[in-house]
Design brief:
By secondary structure, this protein is α+β, with helices and mostly antiparallel strands. Helices cover about 50% and strands about 15% of the residues. The chain is built from 21 helices and 14 strands. α10 runs antiparallel to α11, α10 packs parallel to α13 and α16 packs across α17. The longest helix is centred in the middle third of the chain and has 26 residues. It is globular, with a radius of gyration of 24 Å. The relative contact order is 0.10. Bound molecules: flavin-adenine dinucleotide. Flavin-adenine dinucleotide binds next to β5, β7 and α18.
Length: about 500
């Protein structure tokens, strides 16, 4: 089934408890901090019904039309279809949004691969995975990710501090389990449900743990409270901050105050091994759309820098071209990792098609780690005017407007209004509060840098380089003992 934007909005009016800036939000679809991003999500739903987009955004199987985004990948074309669908969305909305569902569904596909580990503990839980994978597809559910707890003081075990610092089970009932704690979740306040799983921590040496719990939590369920960070949308004139006003994806600390998770929504419970397995494979698929977003961020930086260089004639300079080329290398580096990871895709333990793991994870490191340096280059190329240019109101006001029009007009092609718009766009992309927030988002939202590197280390096959050097250097066979081999793994 494919939902309409209006059906999605209707689903958010479920009495959910959302707070922002000390105020309880009556309707997230209408509040100024949420409306723009809810409208983007609704637009994506509506696009799937429109003739120019339907073929790219949906597919038909068993007489049912479903979204291409949620189709579990089994062949290469499943990935290239998803790439094209994301491309259609980003170009239609004219910006970049990350957490709109396709980027988080991969976490659920990882569960398909972990079915056997879950079934080992309780076959009911593996059946729950199957049913939820189907339900997300059948109901076109907007699904987000709940991993990160406040954690508290990590030098102490969870139970030695306020136990709510990490989500845990407090009661088991006939209907399900009751959980307490909190998670940071992007987009939770305007999503349907979240896949909750633990931050694996100090308790992982325990065989069974109340902290090892994972399942689906409905965002409007009793006891679920969304306490959001302040929004960027609505704070300023969209003419001055065009990205912050349209694409802010509000995060929330989602509190679970004795929330019942029904048995049919649980994937694992008091099962440390399952928790470790799920966390270890979490981004197997979802890293792909995450990294793909950065291709569009790179294009925005290249476009802003190139327009600026062209309008001032600076693109004739070799040293300016070199900086533009650095941006292009960054962009094409992302593109190459994504392309190669699909071309070299690997079969997963559950029979799905995973993007080539070490290439994908290396691409994530390339894209995330180099973003600050690339923003610096793009900022340099845009010049200091992105931080000194007055707002649109000053360009329109009597008294100041004429002076600004005089000094911001470059030639017949570039009049003051286009130059102002370009500088406002570049400021919001590279310099504003929103720009800083997005940089932090990219660096953390799919785990921090050390974790990205751990994923590369754990997915790369070191045997090739080890054998190559062993032969090339003429090393003896003594080094092949298990003890030494194991050390590199
Ligand atoms: C904008 C934004 C959006 C987010 N959205 C979501 C979301 O939708 N869902 C979700 O679950 N989470 C989300 N997060 C949370 C995010 O996943 C966490 O911020 C991240 O996992 C790091 O956890 P932390 O903030 O508790 O940092 P900490 O664990 O306190 O780590 C802070 C820093 O300490 C260092 N460090 C910590 N542990 C180690 C280690 N073992 N080895 C080496 N260095 C270490 C690293 O430098 C690390 O970056 C979001 C975060 C941000 C900033």
């Amino acid at each position: 089934m494919i939902r309409t934007g209006e059906e999605y909005r209707q689903g958010l009016r479920d009495g959910r408890e959302v707070w922002i800036d000390g105020e309880r939000v009556a309707d997230v679809t209408k509040h100024p901090a949420f409306k723009p991003i809810v409208d983007v999500r609704a637009r994506i739903y509506d696009m799937a019904h429109e003739a120019p987009y339907q073929e790219r955004l949906t597919y038909v199987a068993d007489n049912e039309r479903n979204t291409i985004f949620y189709k579990p990948p089994r062949e290469t074309s499943d990935w290239t279809d998803k790439v094209e669908a994301v491309d259609a969305v980003m170009k239609d909305i004219g910006g970049v949004v990350t957490r709109v569902g396709d980027e988080t569904i991969g976490e659920v596909w990882s569960l398909i691969d972990g079915r056997d580990v879950l079934a080992e503990y309780d076959p009911r839980f593996a059946d729950n995975v199957d049913r939820h994978v189907a339900s997300i597809l059948d109901n076109d559910i907007f699904h987000v990710s709940a991993n990160t707890d406040p954690k508290g003081d990590r030098s102490r075990a969870p139970q030695d501090q306020d136990p709510d610092m990490m989500v845990h089970v407090v009661k088991e009932t006939d209907a399900g389990i009751v959980i307490r704690g909190a998670k940071y979740e992007t987009a939770a306040a305007y999503a349907d449900q979240a896949f909750l799983k633990p931050t694996v921590g100090a308790w992982t040496n325990e065989t069974l743990s109340d902290y090892a719990v994972g399942g689906i939590v409905r965002m409007g369920a009793p006891g679920v409270k969304h306490i959001c960070r302040s929004g960027f949308a609505g704070r300023s004139d969209p003419a001055d901050y065009p990205l912050a006003n349209r694409f802010d994806e509000v995060e929330a600390m989602v509190i679970f105050d004795n929330v019942l998770i029904p048995w049919e929504d649980i994937f694992f419970y008091r099962h440390t091994k399952a928790a470790q397995h799920v966390r270890g494979t979490l981004h197997r698929y979802s890293a792909f759309p995450y990294v793909q977003r950065l291709l569009y961020v790179a294009d925005m930086m290249i476009g802003a820098a190139m327009w600026n260089a062209r309008q001032t004639g600076l693109d004739k300079l070799q040293s300016v071209r070199e900086k533009l080329a650095d941006l292009v290398c960054y962009r094409e580096g992302i593109n190459a990792h994504l392309t190669a990871s699909i071309a070299m895709a690997q079969k997963s333990p559950g029979g799905l098609l995973m993007p080539h793991q070490s290439m994908l994870y290396a691409g994530r490191v390339h894209a995330c780690a180099n973003l600050p340096a690339m923003m610096h280059i793009a900022r340099e190329l845009c010049g200091g005017q992105i931080c000194v240019t007055p707002n649109a109101a000053a360009f329109n006001a009597e008294g100041s407007g004429d002076w600004l029009k005089k000094f911001y007009t470059l030639n017949d092609q570039w009049e003051a209004e286009d130059r102002r718009k370009l500088l406002a766009f570049a400021r919001d992309l590279l310099n504003s509060d929103y720009a800083g927030h997005r940089l932090t988002f990219v660096q953390f939202a799919q785990a921090p840098h050390f974790n990205h590197l751990a994923a590369v280390y754990n997915s790369f096959d070191f045997d090739g380089p080890l054998d190559f050097v062993r032969k090339s250097a003429g090393l003896s066979d003594k080094i092949l003992s298990d003890k030494v081999r194991g050390a590199g793994k």
